[in-house]
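pinning this so it doesn't scroll away 📌
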Amino acid sequence: MNPIQELIINFQELAAQVPEIIRPFIVMLAGAVPFIETEGASIIGILGGLHPIVAGIAGAVGNFLSVVFVVLFTSRTRTAVTNHNRDRVSAARSAERVPASPGYQGSAAFEETAPAKPVSKGRQRFMKWLVRFGVPGASILGPLAIPTQFTSAILIAGGTPRGWVLLWQGVAIVIWTTVATVSFWATLTFVVGV
């Protein structure tokens, strides 16, 4: 027995101590974590002794639920910010109509803001994909650069409709789950021999 087989068997023995009905929920929780996501969760489930289809579905459901939460939260935040800014602009316009007192130099609230932080390489790559391929391409290729939760937050913050983001994030999750689960199952079955 090689070291990889021994490691997998030890992990399966550890996972066997958890009741079988709870294992998919653990995989769902792992799927909700950024950077682990569906791909890592399905691998954890397969290593833990779950059937590959059950592991893939549990990981995908956990990932999609976390994406739904991020989309709803980001959408509400964006709405609040845009409404607040709209109110500020309308207040500034009404203030322009009122004559200023002598010696008034302008409002400090409308001064230039400090330059933004530099954008990360992953976000630069994602934004390039968004411009080139639109929401469908950015959603499907996004997991190569950044987690799906971050991808959906960027899309919503940019003004993309919630339904469109959820649709294409769901498609991306299904595609990447299938690729990761089948690849890992095939590797374990045909290469490692477990």
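📌 and the second one:
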Amino acid sequence: MTFRFRFLPRPVLAALTAALIMSGVAQAQLLSPQQEAGAAIGKLVDSHQYQTALPRIDAYLKKYPRDAQMRFTRGRVLTELGQREQAIAAFTALTQDFPELPEPYNNLAALYAQEGHYERARAALEMAIRTNPNFAVAYVNLGDVYAKLAGQAYTRANQLAPSANVNAKIQALDHMLQSQTIAPAAPAPASAAPAANGHASP
């Protein structure tokens, strides 16, 4: 079963770029040091250079510890590097510091589910949905988690009292979960992008 990860995009700089064109000043001259550093890290992540990106992210966060988007990116990079415990810690801290953002709950749930902790995954996804009732990816993930929990319950029931009917349900669930494809995640809401000073938008 594949669980979906939703990544926050880098801040949109279209308005800034338009202003630069009109003023005739080079873009780099008007970007703040924080924006320049964030853009450089974003390029590394986009090109899958995770090992190179991670120490730069850590250095960036020493200067701008309240940048929710960069902290989210750090969790993503740790996940890509297979450092699950550190990724779980990163996303857990995000849910504590920025409880209004549903995406960290979703990614935390995906990590829990991959480790077989489906009850923890369910609780995290319910928090994501409570935070944003329109977060479609979380609903899909929650359905997957409930299906996995149902499969475990049916399997246990079949062990205690073998039944052709229960066995058929187990096989149907297995077939459903194996045939799933990954649905693309929609862009993150604008409210999730951090402000220029490194704080999350309200």
